[in-house]
Predict the 3D structure of the following.
Amino acid sequence: MRIIVDAAIEKKETKDLFGIFFEDLNHAADGGLYGELVRNRSFEFATVDHPDYHSLTAWEKIEGDGAVKLITETGYPVDSHNPHYLIMDIYKPGLDAGVQNVGWGSGIPLKEGCIYYFTCYARREQDRTEPITVSLRSQSGKVYETSEIIISDTWKKYELQFRSPVTDNSARLAITSKGSGKVYLDFVSLFPADTYKGRKNGVRRDIAELLEQMHPKFMRFPGGCLVHDGSLNPDDRDSMYRWKNTIGPVESRPARRNNWGYNQTLGLGFYELFLLSEDIGAKPLPVIAAGYDPHHKREVPLNEMQPWIDDALDLIEFANGSQETKWGSIRAEMGHPEPFHMEYLGIGNEEVGEGFFERFEIIYHAVRRKHPEIKVIGTSGPNAAGSEFERGWESGRRNGVEFVDEHYYQSPEWFLANHHRYDSYPGDGPKVFLGEYASWGNTWYNALTEASFMTGLERNAHAVGLACYAPLLAHIDYVNWKPDMIWYNNHKSYGTPNYYVQKMFMNHQGKYQLHHEMEDIPDNEILSDTERIAGRIILCDYESEVTYTDITLMNEDTKETMAFEDCRIDLDSGKEIILTETDCQNYTLCLKAVETEGYRGFRIRFGSKDSDNEYCWTLGGWQNQDTFIGEKINGKNSDLSQCLLTVEKNRTYDLRLEVRGRRIKTYVDNALYHDTESKPVIIEPLYFSAQESEKGGLIIKAVNVSEKAVKASICIRGMDALENKELEAVCMEGWEPDAVNSITSPDMVSPGIKKVKVTLPEFQFELPGRSIYIFHTNG
Ligand code: AHR
């Protein structure tokens, strides 16, 4: 095949195309990126965070030869935003009585020779005189380092510094005291001095360096569902993420429930996230909620939107305002007099339904009026297509937002089948912000298919403005969501193959996308039936007791109709009824369905080869709020279409599924819900994209997903200055599709540099099977 890159034909600016998305799930903040080593430092863990949590979670008694009672109370706190504190009541004095913190994962990680900063607030009962002893210890109680503090009877902040004589990844931080009586403790903290860029209240160096090394153009934060799941009152313990709660002195930031089932100290708050963006060279892209919680159907009355408008406007002032402004001065006080140069603002994350969009518009217009310079990002829900996706785009176009946020987590094959998704997107109107996407898995094959898709994002720079893989971080001991780009335990981290693909693309983001044409293209590899969706048709319950009646299946080509007996599926019986197996190209299934017990609805599986390769029409999906068409390939799901629908109990629904080739339409009570196409899975001979770099150099990305090698001749036109220049290549190749990285093999699947002697303007190259090559001129 021959590929002609022509720089003389219209160039599209790629601007800030590839960035990253930080959300605090999988303990991405506390216990992850945030440098704090003490878990539950201010005794605020509670059942609202997690059913197993309490104010002493992660704290243990030490009763060597004394005895101690540990109690938490709220009467006289250091800061009313964090009301709980610990009373260490030593009722039997001894040499070793007190409390220790177990940290995250295996414990507190100490590195030989490294410095650790200890701080805490403490006071004592009036007539107690014994000092407190702070020590770093092993899990079995061996004391590594120790220091004493004489404390007074009013709250005061105490600070110590330790140098660890050992490396121990399961250490403990202990506070003990001789003599009887009560010691009060709050805000007990231990930070390594060696944080990223040595910042106080900083982030873990190894993880931040992995981020920095990607060279992301932007960083989206803080979520995700984290943003919008919570109560509407910012003072509630389970409030939504409100950025004003996350700034100022850490002691005054209120602990909040994290919607992923744990506690967030908010120590890594908006200030730190802006700073981290700056430190890693990424533009900050904050996302705020719009007074609408789709998880609990909470919405702010429309006439009470002012605080939400203020949150948006004040945030812009906090990020960009001068030191003379109210919020700009708070930023300056926190240590950053210069503005953070925020350009982007996301309003909402994945919300669906009219209620959200009414509220979105109120905030959006207020931002638009006061800050026309800010590029606003609207949302199109959690799915790649369907009526809510369309609603988001319609709102975006009507309101003139700069970007619409799309999210999808799909099978690797979906990414291959939908490589041309953005070819037909218009170049005018809002651009796509692909704010969350990933194929299901962290294998080399996942990464390879994502790389092929990313060349499509680049090629369509006219329509796609920003894109970031999700989620970013996961602690191997606290997993909410898989796959994730970077994994870590309490002391080591590693990038997945997906990370290295992202990194390669970000390290070689050009300034302009160049036009290319392909000639003499070999045939595609076809991995699925291109004509039909054939297989078994299976009726199922969906955590419900269901009766199906009036069931018919018509072959639309022969008009032959089969009728089936009525059937009932009991609640939790797990029973499913295989109606038949069809290899028709065009067929219509009609049936009536009623749910008599349960709370969700119906599932009709079709085109089923086996339970890992099939389609499913779900009615009463996510919290019984939607219907979707799912496609499963090799056990990995993709949502092809989503619409709102709540299944009511004891109501009979008239359902119709029409399959015409690979097009799927569904009707409920004769109203069209889904109209979607399952694109056949094909592997193209080569996925390709070319850019001009900032300095006028050339970048060529070539991805071969097939296991067979492919030969290509690449011809560059319109870049005369590059005549006879040599190209280097960075590449990934040579692993089995299921290869992964791990804590013990952190970079088994990672790029290598190749000195390939290819000269411009035309060169031949053979790309090995399953490989990614990025050729580039130096500079
Ligand atoms: O990335 C994980 C979650 O997926 C995000 O919080 C949410 O936006 C999406 O549903």
